[in-house]
Automatic annotation (TrEMBL):
Pfam families: Melibiase
Protein name: Alpha-galactosidase
Keywords for this protein: Glycosidase, Hydrolase
Lineage of producing organism: Bacteria, Pseudomonadati, Bacteroidota, Bacteroidia, Bacteroidales
Transmembrane segments: none
CDD domains reported in the protein's UniProt record: GH36
Protein's organism: Barnesiella intestinihominis YIT 11860
Length: 682
């Protein structure tokens, strides 16, 4: 919770003259209407939609050890205009049973550049007769009404946990998910600070708009006995905060938005709002859109001979990147070369990179920063690098069997910068693959040698560590590609400005490849999205899921044989080679990853079969997905009055001619149907 901030703005008009407080008020932003009554209860709705979206409720309140304070009476209000933004200030009071009141000062800001969105901050002043204790504050606690859809709702929920669950999922019957933005497990935390909940006709999104991560939750709840679901933004509630007489506490800046369609539009709007506020997203290098091969098919025991022996086939398939993966180092933290594999030390790595580049390939290096194994040289020499719990025990990264390093410790930063220089300058790698779920967030750090006055400082400043890596890499190679792969996590929004290649990061299904791409296309439309190794998709060969969503294709095949120490079989057999060659050829021909994702034509939740559209060089490319489908699909987004030939470019067959703006096509397919709409010239 933060202290009250002073600000100065010029008052343009006052609503005191227009309304009495007993009447409440309506705040409009685009097609959104936010209604506030005399008890400071609120609803939000879309104009022109007769079906109510939310119930009237007290949406902003605080929970104290002494009880919940939510019965506020609106006492006054004011309206001010600052540039593009109209700021409504509402002042209310809640009487306390032991005497005095809690004052509530709520600002609601609407920016004409972001219609349908309202940003809120609430301050509470203890004007009661007692010192109190705040457990948590709550903003935007809306009850969203079930409109008898099946399922009742679809949702985007941006948390990261060890389950590596879907980010887009139905909410039906009985459901609960906390969506905490701090650490949820030893290795997993952070995410995208937005929750979207929608019906077929309209939806609501809530989130926060601070410029660094905050320890808040976005819980979603539903009971099978209720005709509504609940959303909210809540403070962490993990420690009680003293709230003495006369003291003021403040929430973070949060928002609510309403919209038609699925989560794409509100996520895009959130990202644009944050970019206007100062978090600018990168535009990827052309090289970030080139297809990739990774030596991870040979796993940690990969030999020089295996890597170099595979590269002729890599080049033959039209792949442009090759990645040296985990296993070259002594240990996590000690990133010197393992002399068993590199007896010549740095000279051997320089030689390997040169030989890989001789095939005309760009070369990427895997790295897991901020992790150091117990007993490593770096920790023996720098024991204060690690972060500590309240109990003064090291925070442990279960996956790597490592300790967390502090992202703000000057020694850690300097040591990591030196590693970037070695990788990018001395070894001459073209890019880095930053890997590990631990990259997404860090625990509050109680190591008194770091920042004892604010344990969450390391959590809030983590993005600055990735900015250092990004800036240092590109100072050495202005065209460096920096991939951030927080395995299984919903990538922290605050790390996105410092990567120019997002990734599906160990998807558990083809659906995850597509839904993650969908989210990143909304948030960072100019940043390349890598669909990860195709071997992680359904059946290990679902290129169509990456291709149709506009993802960069990737693979980790082995050739001509596997590493004998690896149990899985990733061999590129002659039968597989035919398929791999066709997909990579099509990818290099069409480069849909550089196209524009077309939003608003289909709903990723309710539309069946699932559908996506990419616009590239004036042509629309459609992708439909289902385990199996036999029926009619709607081809949307065509220009009215124009005729099109629908051409299945993978199977090289015409599906017939149709006329815009919308056409019905009967089709039968398994897994995927991909086609383009070619205008038929008169």
């Amino acid at each position: 919770m933060k202290h009250i901030d002073k600000y100065t703005i010029i008052s343009i008009l006052s609503s005191f003259l227009l309304f009495s407080c007993s009447e409440g008020l309506e705040i409009k932003s685009g097609s959104m209407i936010l209604s506030v009554d005399k008890d400071m209860h609120m609803t939000v709705e879309l104009t022109g939609n007769d079906a109510p979206l939310t119930e009237k409720s007290q949406t902003e309140y605080i929970e104290l050890e002494e009880g919940t304070v939510s019965d506020f009476k609106l006492k006054s209000r004011d309206t001010r205009v600052v540039g593009d933004t109209t700021v409504y200030t509402l002042i209310g009071e809640a009487s306390m049973p032991f005497g005095g009141t809690i004052k509530k000062i709520q600002t609601i800001s609407v920016d004409r550049r972001f219609p349908g969105m309202a940003v809120t901050e609430v301050k509470y002043v203890n004007e009661s007769s007692r010192d109190l204790h705040v457990v948590k504050w709550v903003n935007h606690a809306f009850r969203v009404i079930d409109n008898e859809d099946t399922p009742a709702f679809w949702s985007f929920q941006g948390q990261s946990t060890i389950e590596r669950a879907d980010w887009i999922l139905p909410v039906d019957s009985t459901f609960y998910q906390r969506n905490y933005m701090g650490m949820n497990d030893s290795d997993y935390g952070g995410g995208i600070p937005v929750t979207c909940l929608w019906r077929r006709d309209q939806g609501i999104a809530v989130g926060h708009v601070e410029l660094s991560p905050r320890l808040v939750s976005f819980p979603v709840k539903k009971s099978k006995y209720d005709n509504y679901a609940e959303v909210a933004v809540e403070s962490a509630g993990e420690s009680v905060v003293a709230f003495t007489q006369g003291d003021t506490i403040s929430t973070v800046r949060t928002f609510v938005s309403v919209y038609e369609g699925d989560c794409f539009a509100p996520l895009r709007q959130f990202s644009e709002y944050m970019q206007v506020s100062g978090l600018v997203m990168p535009e990827s290098e052309p090289a970030a859109f080139e297809p990739m091969w990774c030596a991870w098919g040979y796993e940690r025991e990969a030999t020089f001979a295996e890597i170099l022996g595979t590269l002729p086939k890599v080049k033959e398939l039209g792949i442009k990147w090759a990645t040296v993966d985990d296993g070259y180092q002594i240990a996590e933290g000690d990133w010197e070369l393992d002399t068993k594999r590199f007896p010549g030390g740095d000279r051997d790595m320089v030689d390997l990179v040169k030989k890989m580049k001789a095939y005309g390939l760009k070369v990427q290096l895997w790295w897991a920063p901020l992790a150091a194994d117990p007993g490593t040289k770096v920790l023996k020499e720098n024991p204060d690098f690690i972060t500590l719990s309240k109990q003064q025990t090291p925070h442990y990264i279960t996956w790597w069997d490592s300790y967390y390093l502090s992202p703000v410790d000057s020694g850690v930063v300097s040591y990591s910068r030196d590693l970037v220089d070695r990788f990018m300058k001395k070894y001459d790698f073209d890019g880095l693959k930053l890997d590990g779920q631990h990259l997404n967030s860090v625990h509050p750090d109680y190591n008194w040698k770091h920042h004892p006055e604010c344990p969450q400082y390391s959590y809030e400043q983590l993005p600055g560590f990735f900015k250092m890596i990004y800036d240092e890499s590109r100072s050495i190679n202005p065209h460096a590609v920096i991939q951030n792969c927080p395995c299984g996590c919903c990538m922290s929004f605050y790390n996105l400005p410092y990567t120019n290649q997002t990734v599906a990061s160990d998807p558990t299904s083809s659906w995850q490849v597509r839904l993650k791409g969908y989210v990143y296309k909304a948030l960072v439309p100019r940043t390349a999205y890598f669909g990860d190794h195709v071997e992680l998709s359904d059946n290990g060969d679902d290129f169509a899921s990456s291709f149709g969503i506009g993802a960069v294709l990737g693979t980790k095949f082995t050739w001509p044989k596997n590493n004998p120490k690896v149990k899985a079989d990733y061999r590129l057999t002659p039968e597989k080679e035919v398929i791999w060659k066709k997909w990579f050829s099509l990818y290099n021909e069409k480069m849909l990853s550089t196209g524009e994702y077309v939003n608003g034509l289909y709903d990723i939740g309710y539309s069946r079969p699932e559908a996506h559209v990419i616009r590239k060089d004036g042509t629309l490319y459609y992708a439909f997905y289902a385990s199996s489908f036999d029926g009619d699909i709607l081809v949307k987004g065509l220009e009215e009055g124009k005729k099109y030939e629908l051409y299945d470019y993978f199977n090289e067959v015409s599906l017939g001619e149709v006329e815009g703006p919308e056409a019905r096509l009967h089709c039968k397919f398994e897994r995927a149907l991909l086609f383009q709409a070619n205008e038929v010239k008169k």
